[in-house]
Amino acid sequence: MKAGATLANALWLAGSGAETLRYHRALRQPESAQLSWLGHQLKRHASSEYGRRYGFDGIRDYPCFARRIPLTDYAQLAPAIQRIRRGESDVLASGRVTHLAPTSGTTSASKLIPFTATLQRSFRAAIAPWLADLARQRPALLGGPAYWSISPQIAAPGESAQPREIPVGYADDADYLGGASAWLIRQALAVPGSIRLLQDVDAFWFLTLLCLLRQPELRMISVWHPSFLELLLAAAESRWPELLDAVERGVHPSAAARSSPELHGLSAMPDPGRAAALGRIGPGNWTRWWPRLQVVSCWGEQAAEPGWRTLKRELPRVLVQAKGLLATEAVVTLPINDSKPLAVTSHFFEFLDQRGDVRLAHQLEKGKSYHVVVSNGGGLWRYRLGDQVECDGHVHATPSLRFLGRSGRVSDLRGEKLSEALVYQALQSLWAGTPPPALAMVAACERGRQAHYELLICGAQQLGGLQIVAEKLERILCDNPHYALARRLGQLGRLRAREVAPETARNQLLAHQGRLGDAKPHILLTAQDGWQ
Are 150 and 208 in contact (CB under 8 A)? Predict the structure, then answer.
């Protein structure tokens, strides 16, 4: 076991008690919690250029805030963020920008989100009650190290040529918290953040596995999409003898690791006993590698739901928890028990209903869908996050939200206007009452004589076969009048279904141009995604 992991976990839990208590109190009074947060942040950032422009110091209530400050998106803020990147201070928020955190850029060009000490505190205010709730459910979680997603630091094309003064990117997830919290979490990490420096992806997978296999006391695995874990396990099968040899001898023989000073910490004491135990288990029975594993955290909604359900079946004694809605810009929801309440002590939230009217957190209604707008205290004010959610209930007085899809992700080959949220709901109706297939995506297709949509599915037989599945989904999509009209006019051909291999999701992840851990496979593939 990694030295100090148990102590670091205990210190983290003790130090986050006040934030956890504050959050649970706020769940009962979300309106006052949200308005208090907003008032404090407006005062804090009134001296920034943005705050002076919109008169933050004269805002006394929410109606004034909504009148003075416009709704924004990234395109409108991009010039200011480029100035921040060159080293200018107090532009969108008061205080030093410590990092610019890149988003994955799966629906648009990659974006850079300013991170300040204020925003790091906001993330801590959300992470603290989440981890405290996990420790309540699984006390043994505190007894050993954890693996938090780390991805190779692959630069986007032209990135090195961009002038900048502010660092871009973080070493690992712990960096989002900053300060003592980040330091404590790193003491309990099974894999050091220095692995991100490897440009060789094969070496990255090998060394990540090597660190994990040395940890029989591993208690938690936190990744993003379940496919990330699938890739890790696939790498184990292809290099199992070499991994066992490295565990037994305590070093990794690759020249890349030996020549990189940042990776010297990957050497360890020889452990022939651990190597022998792993040899008896084998590469195909990974659930036995870590007998004290308590929690696996990953995405579990939309395109990630089949992979999440597979993990739940494979790990019946482990808490396989679907993450809340977490963006680079903000924490939107936390997974608490079986609900996902809003992170009411971290940011200020507004919600646009289907008519475009603004609702606050305490005004959301069960069964209604909304578009998320966030003010995060790090420089994003009334920022359209681009996520569509549905209120599926309340925790005390605070809404619990279910992710429906990206607001701006729409396929419109012939005027049919299929949104990702609509396709998600259609697929849920398709397999209502039966387990979802291992993989299902709807792709827009321009090839052939007539534009059409194609259901890419792994496991159609359990739903009656390809033809039956295609006919059912076609009927469901025709409930959308725009799609029905395009079909009736012959502008769109009938929907088709095609069986695909489970590796399709893995291939999508590998093809992602950026950090592997940030890849976000979608349920709806538009023509711009280039699906063939």
Answer: yes
Q: What is the pLDDT of residues 444-491, one digit of tens each?
A: 988 767 889 999 888 777 778 888 999 999 999 998 877 887 887 677
Task: Say what the pTM is.
Answer: 0.79
Strands (E), 412-487: 418-419, 439-445, 452-458
CA nearest neighbour of 204 among 149, 282, 131, 279: 149
| HEC per residue, 222-279 | ECCCHHHHHHHHHHHHHCHHHHHHHHHHCCCCCHHHHHCHHHHHHCCCCCHHHHHHHH
Look up residue 463 and give its DSSP letter: G
Measured CA to CA, the distance from residue 110 to residue 436 in angstroms comes to 32
- Please state which CATH number belongs to domain 410-529: 3.30.300
Residues 329-359 pLDDT 10s: 999 999 998 899 999 999 999 999 989 999 9
Strands 146-148 and 220-222: parallel
Q: Cα(313)–Cα(303) distance, rounded to whole angstroms?
A: 17
Domain boundaries, the chain: 5-153+165-322, 410-529
